[in-house]
Design brief:
- This protein is an alpha/beta fold.
- About 40% of the residues lie in helices and about 20% in strands.
- Strands 1, 4, 7, 8, 9 and 10 form a six-stranded parallel β-sheet that branches.
- Strand 8, helix 5 and strand 9 form a beta-alpha-beta unit.
- Helix 2 crosses helix 6.
- The longest helix is centred in the N-terminal third of the chain and has 30 residues.
- The radius of gyration is 21 Å and the shape is globular.
- It starts with a helix and ends with a helix.
- InterPro entries: Flavodoxin/NO_synth (IPR008254), Flavoprotein-like_sf (IPR029039).
Length: about 200
Amino acid sequence: MKLSRIITVVAALLTSVACNGSEKQENEMEKGKALIVFFSHAGDNYAVGNIKEGNTKIVADYIKEQTGADVFEIVAEKSYDMPYSELIKVAQAEKKSGELPAFKGSISNIGEYDVIFIGGPIWWGTYPQVMFSFFKKHDLNGKTLIPFTTHEGSGLASTVEDVKKQYPRAKVTGAFAIYGHEVRTEKAKVVKWLKGLGY
């Protein structure tokens, strides 16, 4: 009698562990393989002055640290190394003309990723135009896209809507914005956001 009870208890425990392990694996699979795609501007920036490392890159590094995601930095072929007062004029001209500046490198295995974090500063109400060059080159439909921005008052601006327009068959969710002047001291805000997404 005792032996049969022990066997029953052990069997129940093994079943419970197996089920819990299966559930955990399913949750991990739902998140899928992640990639961080971002553009960041070092040099002369509004509110933070001349910086060696761009605000958005710092946030991208936090995301990589928390999630283990791969990273692709969008680096424009043209230089944006200029005083901020000039940069905003260049950015405005690019947006008005619909310019799609070239960028360096490429991603040959984009199909391997299920979740893509898309980050950049806000230039004239949306992402910098060079990011739209990336969007034009890569089809991200069918993926989970998570926009994030650094800003000094614009929040997400129209980035969420613009990503949805670019990729109408993608799931755009979990967007996040943080002040550029906060990124060096408020890592906890980024971590809290990511934990809310399940990372």
